[in-house]
Structure formats: structure tokens, C-alpha cells
Design goal:
single chain, alpha+beta, Nitrilase/N-carbamoyl-D-aminoacid amidohydrolase, 7-stranded mixed beta sheet, 6-stranded mixed beta sheet, 3 helices, about 35% strand
């Protein structure tokens, strides 16, 4: 089994411009790079904001190039939340930035992505609505959410059942609090309360280990992304 490290970004969503949201994403990307992460998951609609009455259009892909460059530079898969037009209906979706692609941007409907480390990299799949159709190669289901209160408890129960029933690790990224990681048996590895932090999971031959790292405690690696390099 190849060892790999994943992370979920947790922070308070606020009314920022797209440029400001991208800059905030890059803060978490650099923090995840300092932890040698192979993949970083953001909450639902992280690039546009989840607490809106109507979903805005998908952002122009050219504006997301800083995230594409960061994915390539750090060899890290980045899964962010964006609105997606599917079948004439605008709905939450994911933008997947792959470390091995030039443009590194693909939009899929839904709030999830399946990942699997192979040959030293991470492969990506759009997640179907029915978890029973998860790709056989997938070893992690990443889900970005925006839940609170009773919704949070329902989300926890559902994801724990998914992990156990389909024998797949599940990583949840949520605003403000409740980000979590379950292993393939549905066992909770680590869960976050409130705070701006990285929820980090490390898988090895002995299983999963989890950690909560305040963003302020993450030393930023040397980075030229913000300068357009």
C-alpha cells in the first residue's frame, strides 16, 4: 500500500470577491504543502460562497489558473466547490485541479470526488449519486459540505454509513466546524470542532492516522504562485 496524505480545509465562509477567495484557497494549499499532502479538499461552493439565495455562474476557468499552477507546483490534487450548469440547472459542483495536467481544471456536478493514489499520483473521478457505483479503483471519497445543526448530525450518520457499507474512506470538508475523516470500516479517525484549520489524514500500511492543525501553525513553503511564477 502506498502511503499518502490528504487534508480538508475548514474556515468561516465570508463574502469575498473571487480573487480574495482564490487567495484564501492558496493559503490552505501552501499549508497543505507544508504537510506534504497529496490531495486537499475544500467545502461546498468554496470558490463562490455557499450562503447565497441563488447560485452565481461558474467562474471563468482562466481566473482559476493560480490554483492550477499550485496543483502542478506542489504535486497536489485540489478539489474546490463551484456552481455547475448541468441539464439546464445550476447546482453545486466541484472543480478538480490535477497535478499532472496543463490546465488542471475539470468541472463536475455534485459535491464529491473519488480519489486513488497510483504510481505516485492521485487519480480523480466524478462521483455518481449512488455510492454503489463508486469506481473500483477509488480508495477515498471526498465530500465538500455546508451543514450545521441537525443537518450536521444527519451528514455525519450518512457518511459513516457510506464508509462502512462501501468499504471506502470518507473525507468531509465543512465550513466553520464538523470536518471529519472516517476509515474504510466507518470508524471515525479525526473530527474538527470550530476553527480555521487543516484536518489531515495519513494512510500507511498500519491504517489511518489523523491530526488537526491550526492554519497559523503551518509554516508556508517557499512559494512563487502568488507572484505568477
Amino acid at each position: 500500500m502506498r502511503e499518502w496524505t490528504i487534508a480538508a480545509a475548514q474556515y468561516e465562509d465570508c463574502g469575498q470577491t473571487l480573487a480574495e477567495k482564490i487567495a484564501n484557497h492558496l493559503r490552505f494549499v501552501r499549508a497543505a504543502a507544508s504537510q506534504h499532502c497529496d490531495a486537499l479538499l475544500f467545502p461546498e461552493l468554496s470558490l463562490t460562497g455557499a450562503c447565497t439565495d441563488a447560485l452565481p455562474p461558474s467562474p471563468d476557468r482562466s481566473l482559476l489558473q493560480p490554483l492550477a499552477r499550485a496543483a502542478r507546483r506542489y504535486g497536489m490534487a485540489i478539489i474546490a466547490g463551484v456552481p455547475v450548469d448541468a441539464g439546464g440547472v445550476r447546482q453545486p459542483g466541484v472543480a478538480i485541479f490535477s497535478p499532472d495536467a496543463e490546465t488542471a481544471t475539470a468541472f463536475y456536478p455534485g459535491q464529491s470526488a473519488c480519489l486513488n493514489p497510483q504510481s505516485g499520483c492521485t487519480q480523480h473521478f466524478p462521483t455518481p449519486d449512488d455510492p454503489s457505483e463508486l469506481p473500483e479503483q477509488a480508495s477515498l471519497l471526498g465530500i465538500g459540505t455546508c451543514t450545521c445543526g441537525c443537518q450536521q448530525q444527519q451528514s455525519v450518520q450518512k457518511l459513516q454509513r457510506v464508509a462502512h457499507k462501501y468499504a471506502i474512506a470518507v473525507l468531509k470538508s465543512n465550513y466553520a466546524g464538523g470536518s471529519a475523516l472516517w476509515d474504510e470500516n466507518g470508524r471515525l479517525i479525526v473530527r474538527a470542532d470550530a476553527g480555521e484549520l487543516l484536518l489531515v489524514g495519513r494512510q500507511s500500511a498500519s491504517g489511518w492516522q489523523g491530526d488537526l492543525i491550526p492554519l497559523s501553525a503551518c509554516p508556508a513553503p517557499i512559494d512563487e504562485i502568488a507572484c505568477g511564477a
